[in-house]
Fold this sequence. Notes:
Low-confidence stretches: none
Helix content: 25-40%
Number of strands: 10
CATH architecture: 3-Layer(aba) Sandwich
Distance between the termini: 36 Å
CATH class: Alpha Beta
Order of helices and strands: EEEHEEHEHHHHEHEHEEHH
Shape: globular
Structural class: alpha/beta
CATH superfamily: P-loop containing nucleotide triphosphate hydrolases
Strand order of the largest sheet: 6-7-8-3-9-10
Radius of gyration: 17 Å
Number of helices: 10
Amino acid sequence: MTLLTVEIAAAGYGAVTVLRDVVFEIPEGGRLVVLGANGAGKTTTLRTISGLCRVEGAVRFAGKDVTGMPPHRVAATGIAHVPQGRGTFGDLTVRENLLVGGSGRPGRAAARDAARWLDRFPRLAERSGRPASGLSGGEQQLLAIARAYMAAPQLVLLDEPSLGLAPKITQELFATLDEIGRETGTAMLLVEQNAELALGIAEEAVVIESGTITVRGSAAELRDKDEVRRAYLGV
């Protein structure tokens, strides 16, 4: 069953249009990766879904029209957004960051899930009482992801999760994302520069160039396309 339908005729910021004719779907539990060069419109795609951009067209999620809804209402429908740069609250502790992510749920459920995520990520558990600003980049990314899943979403939007991370940490992060996706069944829309790793955990993929989709198909198909291999896989 289709979970997310995106039919963007145009989207952008103020008078500036960034996206045109961006159309795709994600089924329940599905995983889609969006590839493209810097400035192609990948982040704007996620921000449009989250209600942060001007949009002409339609965005439907779980049977609801969420087009143009304010971000807090979009989040309440079951969409969690992990922004580029992680967006953790530096002055709050690790545990407090997690509880903020679960603030829309009953307190007992949020506390239980916070403990569960800390058990899953021992590095965060060791620092649970420390300000998030003192974490390494990899630890902050784990915290941002765990905080998103604290809301028990049906769909998680991930914007460049590997940004600024060392290769080994990036590989560990993508293995973790794959595991979490399989365990929770939560759908994933992933924007990522590391195409090799992203295509390895995705099911479907699209390429955005100059604000519009130019290539689409299964992740396996895109890995075999010469233009994708040359542009994004270093082959």
